[in-house]
Write a structure and sequence with these properties.
With 540 residues, the chain is α+β, with helices and mostly antiparallel strands. The protein has helices at residues 2-17, 23-33, 42-48, 104-116, 124-133, 137-141, 146-151, 154-168, 285-294, 306-309, 311-315, 322-338, 355-358, 360-366, 385-402, 408-425, 443-448, 454-458, 478-487, 526-538; strands at 40-41, 52-56, 61-66, 69-74, 79-82, 85-88, 94-96, 99-102, 171-181, 186-194, 198-205, 211-218, 235-242, 249-256, 262-268, 299-303, 343-353, 372-378, 465-470, 494-499. Helix 1 (2-17) packs parallel to helix 16, helix 2 packs across helix 8 (154-168) and helix 15 runs antiparallel to helix 16. The two termini are 49 Å apart.
Length: 540
């Protein structure tokens, strides 16, 4: 279990710092690394991949063949051809001690990716993925929407496939291609086996059939199972669109099967990239809340987060803020619900999990029409974001130590997080004067909300509020819950409740939560569903 825990939390620490998938940054890193380090002889590398190599002295070219794939490289040139299409090496091909050198990662990716593609790609998504895998940015741009072209540059696209290969391993083969449709995009997902993990590329096509965005992530198999309180006959689900324009979001409105108009809850995600179910390994907490509350007469609206549905567009914004990441879409969801005859517009509630709860006072502040009846905080930080990150790491170290495990990997992550927090809190920097060497993505995001303390803003507000917290949560430790209790002690419209076994994913776990258990199937504790339903029903 030690390796699994170590890997899980190295990944978790990285995810905390990278609030969105900052793909332009990854691509840039790949280019910076292609300076000659990590190169190997072509003949030796190709032989390991089952390919043949032919050297032509007259033309100074090296031809690598595998099946129907042909790669032609020229000494001194940084551009090669892969089945006739240009691909980029990152630097001119060179000879050292009578051996021609190449990146083993690039060679493996080109041979594997092209070998797995059909001779003639069938659709736009296929053509786009083929171009990416060959490093042919000019060709990839031909399939992209005007909005996508604004945010994804040719150099980024050129090195993207290779960049992800460096992080997640060489592509060995394509495992599957699946398609799905939501209210905004047609989605084509390609899953690949690499020599390290499974990786998926989801190509998002707009209604014109143009490539409108791209989401890349590890293809972790889900062990999720429906909760005991999920009774499909008791609810219906409808695909809806939140907002409009190039950043519109797809969502699901889950409603009780009969009756109406219904009170409704809008679910707001935590940090990072999240689908509408807030899926992570064996849990889908937003789906659980939706079906559980619908069975008790309460509708629920959940939606894909903007960082998930429009990954590149958001990652490319140098001045992304917490409001744009979280607040604006929550208000757009509320505005949609106000127009529906099947919803009781006087009883619209908003529930925020983790960062969604952290942003809740900002959501209330942005609700200029006072359409929100009440708010629900689920494992929500009450203090500054940077302070939470440091505390989170220390809490994790304490828990790992209590289990008798090696804390060294976690202490290293904690030191990195502390360095980020110290830089954010350094008064010489601000949103108007960002450091040139900020170690995480989207520096503006951090500095723009540096001094925001949610409980301080909530003190000045009013309206029914329910604050729920798991006592077995290391990501938002229990003292954050105590911060809400002490800070809002003078508000008579707030209720508080904590649950001894509940983790950050809102499910019960009998052991000490360190996140390693997230891979196991879990569901939102039924007590939480019942307490939310009861509170909504008795809120006047």
């Amino acid at each position: 279990m030690r390796n699994r825990r170590s890997h899980a939390f190295k990944t978790a620490a990285t995810a905390v710092l990278a609030l969105t998938m900052a793909l332009p940054g990854v691509a840039g890193a790949a280019q910076a690394d292609s300076t000659g380090s990590g190169l190997a002889p072509i003949r030796e590398t190709a032989g390991k991949l089952g390919a043949q190599v032919r050297w032509d002295r007259a033309s100074r070219t090296v031809t690598v063949t595998k099946g129907t794939t042909t790669l032609v490289l020229t000494i001194g040139q940084a551009t090669a051809t892969l089945n006739g299409a240009p691909v980029q090496l990152g630097e001119p091909l060179r000879v050292v001690r009578n051996q021609t050198l190449i990146s083993p990662d690039l060679l493996a990716q080109w041979l594997a990716a092209v070998s797995e593609q059909p001779e003639e790609a069938a659709d736009t998504a296929d053509l786009f993925i083929r171009a990416l895998s060959q490093g042919d940015a000019k060709q990839a741009l031909q399939y992209m929407s005007p909005e996508f072209k604004k945010v994804a540059t040719e150099p980024q696209l050129q090195s993207l496939w290779a960049a992800y290969g460096q992080v997640y391993g060489n592509v060995v083969k394509q495992l599957s291609k699946t398609t799905s449709r939501n209210a905004v995009h047609d989605n084509v997902t390609y899953t690949y086996q690499t020599d390290k993990t499974q990786l998926s590329y989801t190509v998002r096509l707009n209604k014109k059939g143009e490539v409108d965005d791209l989401y890349i992530g590890t293809a972790n198999p889900s062990s999720y199972h429906a909760p005991s309180y999920d009774h499909p006959s008791e609810y219906t689900e409808e695909e809806v669109t939140i907002g409009e324009g190039p950043l519109a979001l797809p969502g699901t409105l889950t409603k009780p099967a009969t009756g109406g108009p219904f009170p409704v809850v809008v679910l707001v995600h935590g940090s990072g990239t999240h689908d509408r179910d807030s899926s992570i390994y064996g849990a889908k907490p937003f789906r659980d809340l939706a079906v559980g509350l619908a069975a008790q007469g309460i509708a629920v609206l959940r939606y894909d987060k903007v960082t998930y549905e429009h990954t590149f567009k958001i990652a490319s914004d140098p001045k992304i803020t917490l409001r744009r990441e979280t607040v604006d879409d929550a208000i757009a969801a509320v505005n949609l619900l106000k127009t529906r005859a099947d919803i009781d517009a006087s009883r619209i509630f908003v529930a925020g999990h983790s960062q969604g709860g952290f942003a809740m006072p900002l959501i209330v502040d942005a609700d200029k029409d006072h359409a929100i009846k009440g708010t629900i905080l689920l494992s929500a930080p009450s203090g500054k974001f940077t302070d939470l990150l440091v505390e989170q790491q220390q809490e994790l170290i304490k828990r790992v130590k209590s289990l008798g495990q090696d804390t060294a990997p976690y202490e290293q992550s904690a030191a990195q997080v502390k360095a980020v927090a110290d830089m954010v809190n350094d008064p010489q920097y601000s949103a108007d004067h960002l450091p040139s060497n900020f170690p995480a993505s989207n520096a503006y995001w951090w500095y723009e909300q540096r001094d925001y303390v949610p409980v301080e803003l909530a003190k000045k507000q009013s309206g029914p509020m329910l604050v729920l917290q798991g006592e077995n949560d290391f990501q938002v430790p229990i003292d954050q819950f105590e911060g809400w209790k002490s800070g809002l002690q003078n508000r008579s419209d707030v209720e508080f409740k904590s649950y001894p076994k509940v983790t950050h994913l809102l499910g019960e776990y009998d052991g000490v939560s360190t996140g390693a258990e997230y891979v196991q199937p879990s569901n939102v504790a039924e007590a939480i569903v019942n307490d939310i339903a009861s509170w909504i029903k008795r809120t006047p």
